[in-house]
Known about the structure:
There is one protein chain. By secondary structure, the chain is α+β, with helices and mostly antiparallel strands. It folds into 2 domains: 9-57, no CATH class; 65-140, no CATH class. Helix content is 19%, strand content 39%. It contains 2 helices and 11 strands. The chain has a 5-stranded mixed beta sheet with strand order 5-7-8-9-10, with helices on one face. Strands 1-2-3-4 form a 4-stranded antiparallel beta sheet, with no helix packed on it. A two-stranded parallel ribbon has the order 6-11. β9 (124-128) and β10 (133-137) form a beta hairpin.
Amino acid sequence: xxxxxxxxxxxxxxxxxxxxxxxxxxxxxxxxxxxxxxxxxxxxxxxxxxxxxxxxxxxxxxxxxxxxxxxxxxxxxxxxxxxxxxxxxxxxxxxxxxxxxxxxxxxxxxxxxxxxxxxxxxxxxxxxxxxxxxxxxxxxxxx
Length: 143
């Protein structure tokens, strides 16, 4: 870490110029600069680290939201696969004019065995076919 001193110069981010430029320290907060003066536009503002300094200072996150979303989707797919493997329930043969309910097993002539997992109204059904979800035309059956 650099040693900062009053009226010393440093490179930091200028919000007016939108660049990393030379600044003069005008106010210190302990051993860190609090306010600086841009030597290019003469604007005085609070000290802002450069984007590179910010990236170095931040610890790496354990898992991003995308990773969490993928993990959640993977768990959902595992549950759907287990429901698809139930042998005691006879699947319905897919017909776009029929109605289906959540967790109904459907046998499609092209995609094979699937599981109904959701609906888009008025007439779309989401069916999980082992490795992907397809949106097909069908109705929601009221129980």
